[in-house]
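Exercise 3.2. Students should predict the tertiary structure of the chain below and write it as structure tokens, then compare their answer with the key that follows.

Predict this chain's 3D structure.
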Amino acid sequence: MRRLILAVVLGLTPAYAFAGKVVAIIVTDTFDGSIGTGIKANQKQIGALLDRLEVEGNFEVSRTVVEGVAFTCQGISNAVNSLAVNSGDAVIVYYAGHGYRLAGSPSKFPYFECGSAGGATVKIGLADVVAKLAEKEPRFVLAVADTCNVVIAEPAPGVMADGCRHAAGGASDPPPDGGAVPPCPLIS
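Answer key:
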């Protein structure tokens, strides 16, 4: 997978034609014990890919990482909304965590399981992230979601919506430091 992404970025955008930089958002649910170990390994691999883009491709790379306590819907929203992107930039988004798709949703892409606010389940989807990034008019966007995409009914308020593991826990739980998961609007 790393080599394919590297080949796509290097092969489709030769250095002489690529005046921008590579802007990456890496979002990982590192607190969920059922997936955290594998996600940390994947996060390391994505970091190595970006390192190779810098060294072998001679690209300027900027990274925004959303993990740990920052892994909330608000954290994801903030990262996407505040990302500085120029028209010549290539954007890479990598999400690793739980996800699902709603029955009747017009999109075939997953929503991220990134928490609840005030008893209501909050939804941010891969399509929302890509649409917001497209508004910034980068040269290229590559979005990868390493998540389940199981079709479920509308999630019950305050209940994990994840279609993969049908049990409470993970991203909707308070962080280990006891802090509260902040409320979050959809990508604005």
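Discussion points: The beta strands are 22-28, 61-66, 90-96, 99-102, 111-112, 116-117, 120-121, 124-125, 140-146, 151-152. The helical segments are 2-12, 36-55, 73-82, 126-135.
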